[in-house]
Amino acid sequence: MKSKGFATGVWVFGSCPDRFCTKGYKKEVSLEESLDKIASIEGLQGLMMHYPAPLNEDNASYVKKELEKRDLKLASCDVDLFSSPEFSWGALMCEKEVRKKALEMSKKAMDVAEHLGAEVMNLWPGQDGFDYPFQINYQAQWDLLVDALSEIASHNPGVKLSLEYKLREPRTHSTIANAGIALFLAQEIGPNVGVTIDLGHSFNVKESPANVVALLDKYGKLFALHLNDNFRDWDDDMAVGSVHFWETLEFIYYLYFSNYEGWLGLDIFPYREDPAEACRFSIEMINYCLEIVQKIDKKKLEEIQKEADALSALRYIKSLL
Amino acid sequence: MKSKGFATGVWVFGSCPDRFCTKGYKKEVSLEESLDKIASIEGLQGLMMHYPAPLNEDNASYVKKELEKRDLKLASCDVDLFSSPEFSWGALMCEKEVRKKALEMSKKAMDVAEHLGAEVMNLWPGQDGFDYPFQINYQAQWDLLVDALSEIASHNPGVKLSLEYKLREPRTHSTIANAGIALFLAQEIGPNVGVTIDLGHSFNVKESPANVVALLDKYGKLFALHLNDNFRDWDDDMAVGSVHFWETLEFIYYLYFSNYEGWLGLDIFPYREDPAEACRFSIEMINYCLEIVQKIDKKKLEEIQKEADALSALRYIKSLL
Amino acid sequence: MKSKGFATGVWVFGSCPDRFCTKGYKKEVSLEESLDKIASIEGLQGLMMHYPAPLNEDNASYVKKELEKRDLKLASCDVDLFSSPEFSWGALMCEKEVRKKALEMSKKAMDVAEHLGAEVMNLWPGQDGFDYPFQINYQAQWDLLVDALSEIASHNPGVKLSLEYKLREPRTHSTIANAGIALFLAQEIGPNVGVTIDLGHSFNVKESPANVVALLDKYGKLFALHLNDNFRDWDDDMAVGSVHFWETLEFIYYLYFSNYEGWLGLDIFPYREDPAEACRFSIEMINYCLEIVQKIDKKKLEEIQKEADALSALRYIKSLL
Amino acid sequence: MKSKGFATGVWVFGSCPDRFCTKGYKKEVSLEESLDKIASIEGLQGLMMHYPAPLNEDNASYVKKELEKRDLKLASCDVDLFSSPEFSWGALMCEKEVRKKALEMSKKAMDVAEHLGAEVMNLWPGQDGFDYPFQINYQAQWDLLVDALSEIASHNPGVKLSLEYKLREPRTHSTIANAGIALFLAQEIGPNVGVTIDLGHSFNVKESPANVVALLDKYGKLFALHLNDNFRDWDDDMAVGSVHFWETLEFIYYLYFSNYEGWLGLDIFPYREDPAEACRFSIEMINYCLEIVQKIDKKKLEEIQKEADALSALRYIKSLL
To answer: Which of A249, B299, D65, D67 has the maximum number of C-beta atoms within 10 A of its C-beta?
Structure first.
């Protein structure tokens, strides 16, 4: 790993509403205030922002300056295909006019990414899926998705199009549900298409995130990371390592020895917690994991792994805490 | 069962936001418009409303008139202890000033229920729980909860205090998580304390909802119903019977032969669907289940059940579709 | 679909043990008795058997005769890489001597399949995975798996090698965990490699099985079916349609309009139920679904699906019961 | 806590079969060999055994001597109502002759427990539940269960009857599914009826095990412990703390400050691992947790908990590793 450092989603500093507390558990803050807070957190050097809000072609130069002023970099410009009700029925998989808009937005997001020096445009097709049995024609919708991703990918081959898979939410079923589907699509569509591992999404679909790192790395498809934690069944977006300590540590181990060169992006949703504290806690936890990982004698561990001797492996890891 | 008929949560007709589409997938409508829509749906005769919004002591007489005008009844007045950010850290289980407010609101909700002729005050302590390991002192918080429920229950013994259990959301863990805990509390606290089965919450905690009906009915503790469906792992609040057909039918079977005398309350959250259609679909499905249930020869089924002969039981039920 | 008819796993007629009732809930019966029972079930014309027991190169001719005697066909010869303790630590992914044996067995299973006229060799790598964090070296093990599958597939290109994915059990994590991973492997390895959908495994990993049918069919990779049902979280191997009625119906709908030309294989594990009854119930349920599906006006449904109008779609389907 | 020390289920040293590897992943060993192994493990002083095998009224004196010889104590004598196929359809909830046998066995297990100086008879009604919708008459079966438990409890009030709840397996639904139901039953039935927390069962039903400790302790109903770990969705019976580090630590924290006076019982099922190593690992992990817990400044933590300040709480705990 040659990580570019820690980044955070700017949304981490938002008001964090849910469907019950609809105004958010906290006050909304301005972009500038968010940037100030982010800049003040030790270890944070980058941030992820959505197109078209809060970042777009019109304010790109202003945002660039605001970032430079605070010594921050843009890790990725991610297209927002989920927050507007016009995407209720899907964005890239919708047969209607709205799909054109989604395509347009995705392409522009890539260009803005490039303009601000971000290598990645993260695409999470949150509304592309379905809720009920018999609701959609799966094959027709799949074709729309593949065509859309191809069109987006070929728009700007210099930008990495990274697909963020997720099992569900906001739909009861997302089409790009797991690492297998995402990797399949990335291989089918082209070299500038890869995959974002959202640690929590990986837990949701009952994957071993460390296994996914190894798999995607083998095919050169690990493009971006969203780090967080949860209680498996839902995307709780909690502070990193607060639930799954061993598996987070194992994830960091495989990441450390991978070819990943991107950012360590925090994607937490601290409904009630202070976002700066949640970032600090997460960075501390990841750094703690990195410290332990650096103490691991890889050869020794791999000898143990050849025997699939889980208890010796875990005992060895535990001895390094 | 001597059901009072179908009721709907007035919130079913709201804008249905989630944490991504924060303004809601639909337009907000006025209370009066909601009432008009509700009154227009065949089979709907009652509705469930939250205190202090949209129903409270100040507008109770106005709401009463608006209901009467449309031949609607109030099924329950439910205290809202979850939508205000002041309850972020809990309402009844919070050690702070806010707990007093929650107690006050709960009592007033009971009184408003009584004033409008609703037998039930449904209490869903949505924020009472926790998110992270080590976050709260469980025993101290439990005592606060028990004391609060006792105080509320004894405030107005003429109103049924119905506890709505749920596994999680908006917290990662709710304290009143399943029917067992709710029944235990209801038995401990008093005769006017019972339990609301939210069909989807029951699926979430991997219960058999029909089993829960039978259990609560035995102890005289089935006070209210919230009907909906989901894909087990999350409270999707979908139209009734759209996923779990057999188990919904079995639930209706046990309900039909229970002593339940309350409303058949719809608690769906139709993010993208038309709320009136979602209600109609749900009522049709429940009525279809009731038709089938009435065709069941109870003695015959119970003979089969004595042998635990599942396939014969299901084959018999299927023959009645 | 041009299905070859219904088949059952011969194991369905076994003693059905679990880890608590280790001798099985029923008596073990001979192969011949199982065949007699299977032949007596209306609608059953084929069966699936494992190599090397009860089917292998030594008894292949005898089994062939016994099948012909009863007018039964071999649907598939499936390699058993899971029941012997020598595969405890994996079969195809194990670095040891045992892997050679697994490869040899897999190849022979293909040949026996061909010899008895079965088009498919189903491969479920049940022991290939891991249990604990840090237990195995994921990349090394993945390479072993891919190499093994390539070697097996190229051994006999005239036989379809069908990969049966599963989330977990008997390991806490299987490597080929979902349809995405299986499809990716099938595409990478070769034209005679495809995928088996086990309906219950698909529910376990929170897929929509109907969606998976559509996806695999598009890429010509739907090779075999294992039909059953469960309560989502575990591979209960229950009678078909006994839990998920709508989704089973939807699965049959997409299957009916697919290019699938294989068998409708029953893979139930009737711990306590009579296996013949469980097969009969499953066949009745599938036939009932097929009847309904044939009544569906595909154009009409697809018009509704273009609007993603779930409630109208479900109401239409329900009207055909 | 005034724990009596570590105990293990003698079954931990069995052959560990599952439904696929039906003979077990290991060789069966004699009781005496198991006892030798158990006695050789540092920290292990007790063991849990089932009635009528390997412990019963006929061999009780022999077993007593064998235990004394090795300086081991019987932690509990647990009735086995699950391994014989005669209990396929339930034991205490079965309306047939078999129920009488189950009652008889349960009573004798209590007497044998008393005879060997074990305070607890652990009762896990593994077969008491159901598999399919419509399979049983819930109310009739519930009454049978309550009556049976009352009869057993009153047979020998000097022995603690501890109910071990579990969500599922071997049935798809167990009747005593969670801590709430178990606590309710314990309160209803009598003072010598309490609850066993199996750590993994608690994870399966998505409880916070630490919360359950606090709850049961408050009502004086925490009678026994089964320690292990899993990946939430299934009872994997893995070595303690190998998946859920923080929650296991939190569980130990609440346990340490509880009034629990029983054994720390290991209930792992090491299919592939050496059972002695799995016990050693688990004991090391629990001792590590106990060390950390002893370093916790309870007042300080409770101050943090008053603010529900999860991140500060976790950061403080992490600082003690």
So the answer is: A249
